[in-house]
Amino acid sequence: DGGITQSPKYLFRKEGQNVTLSCEQNLNHDAMYWYRQDPGQGLRLIYYSQIVNDFQKGDIAEGYSVSREKKESFPLTVTSAQKNPTAFYLCASRHTDTQYFGPGTRLTVL
Amino acid sequence: AQSVTQLGSHVSVSEGALVLLRCNYSSSVPPYLFWYVQYPNQGLQLLLKYTSAATLVKGINGFEAEFKKSETSFHLTKPSAHMSDAAEYFCAVRYSGAGSYQLTFGKGTKLSVIP
Lengths: 110, 115
Known about the structure:
The complex is a heterodimer of chains A (110) and B (115).
Chain A: E1 4-7, E2 10-13, E3 19-25, E4 31-37, E5 43-51, E6 54-57, E7 64-66, E8 76-78, E9 87-95, E10 98-101, E11 105-109
Chain B: E1 4-5, E2 10-14, E3 19-21, E4 24-25, E5 32-38, E6 44-50, E7 56-58, E8 64-68, E9 73-78, E10 87-94, E11 104-105, E12 109-114
Parallel strand pairs in B: 2-12
Antiparallel strand pairs in B: 1-4, 3-9, 5-6, 5-10, 7-8, 8-9, 10-11, 10-12
C-alpha cells in the first residue's frame, strides 16, 4: 500500500525540549514538504526538500530543523527555540504538480 | 505578495442544497489551482485541480470547480450536499515561478451540513 505515514499521531512536549516528528513515504517522490496548521490560518510552509541531501527554508523555518538523508524520509525537529510550537503538523510529498499529504501529527506543549 | 482568499470561514447548507465555496487568487497570470478537503484530525485529500486545460474541472465526491480568469476565481461547487461533505475545504494556488511547486493556501472554509 503506497502512501505517506506520520508518527506519532499525538505528541506532548515539555517546554525547553526538542522533539522530532517522523514523515515517511513509499511513493518514490523526490520532493517533500513540512507544513504547520493553526486554527483559522491555513497551512504555512516550514521546510521543503526537492532531492536527497538538499532542503530549503519555507516561510516560517525559525525554530525548526530538518534532514533528508534518504529519499523516503524527511523528519522535522521542533527545537526549544520555537516559541509557540503547539500546532498540527502536516507532511506532504509531490508527484509532478500535485502534493499529497500525510495524516498529520498534533503537537502539544505542556 | 501572492495571496489566496477564501470568502467565509464557515458555510452552512441544508442537506440536498447547493454547495458553493469561494476562492479568489491574486495574479494576472493563470496559476495552477487546487482544492483539498480535510476531515477532523486528518491530513488533506485532493478534491480536484486546474492546470490550464479545461476550465471546468470535475473532482471526487461530486465536486467541481470552474476557473474564471476574468474574475481570478476558482469556486468549488456541488449540486446537492450530503452529510458526509461536512469538513474543512482549502483552496491552494501554485503561482508562476514558485520554486519547487510551492503552494499558497487559503485560510480554509468549514462546511456544515444541516440535516
